[in-house]
Amino acid sequence: MCLQKGVKVAEAARKLGIPTQTAQGWYDRDQKDPQNIIQRKTAKDLVGRPPSLGEEHRVFLVGYIDKKPSLTVDEIMDGLSAQFMDLSISRTAVYSFMKEKCRISLKAYFHSVERNSSENIKRRYEWIKRWMETDIDYLSNCIFIDEATFHINMKRAVAWSKIGSRAEVVITKSRAKSTTILEATSPYGAINVKVRKPRAVNPNKKRKAGGGKAVINTQSRSGTVTGHYFNFICDTMDALDKHEEFKDCYIVMDSAPIYKNADIEKEMNRRAYSCVYLPLYSPELNPIK
């Protein structure tokens, strides 16, 4: 710039963002030995490590995810490793490549409209306000109960799809046997866990509640019913009775029909436990979820 445009060293240094002394040193060396100029490499001249993922990986990933859009990133990495044996790459790099080069994004799941309706928001507010006036404490005197059901046709609530397009997951219509897990946990850890697998046994065996009323201990091919839940609650209270810190605690659960059986609540009250039913569409109020 100094030689070609006749600009002074200080002015050239200021325009190029170079310290004046550094620019003056370069100028002086150039005047003494013009052949000894060190040319700086531009970004185009810089040579770095070639990218680990290229076009062949992009083509594979697009086709692989199109077939199974509900795959996790770990499962996608397993597929890449199986297809390209010598590939070594991080999970973050694969995820970035999918977004930037494959133009694929993860679509989040949707929840029901009722969950955030004004009526249910008000119901949750009133529920919280009411129980805050008691001695209930999620961190000390509460037991949280819930159930989870699994079957072979279950899919993730999120899926991959090309940016700008809707995610679609194919689900088989065939019926599948369900496995149900009932769990009770506390701030100190798990209290009781029961796994119920679908099987056919004698449905006539009965267990008596505290008031002498028999509740059918049903174990059929259908889903978990009130009889299973009643027995689980009784087993859970048996475990709680062994520990003084759980005396007179609150048992928190959903408002599903199988939970709100009169015999269940009656048995809990008889054994000095308080039954707390959550408002509808409020999974965030149950830490076990």
Automatic annotation (TrEMBL):
Lineage top rank: taxon: Eukaryota
Source species taxonomy: Eukaryota, Fungi, Fungi incertae sedis, Mucoromycota, Mucoromycotina
Pfam families to which the protein is assigned, alphabetical: DDE_3
Name the record gives this protein: Tc1-like transposase DDE domain-containing protein
Molecular function GO terms recorded: nucleic acid binding
Domain Tc1-like transposase DDE: 237-289
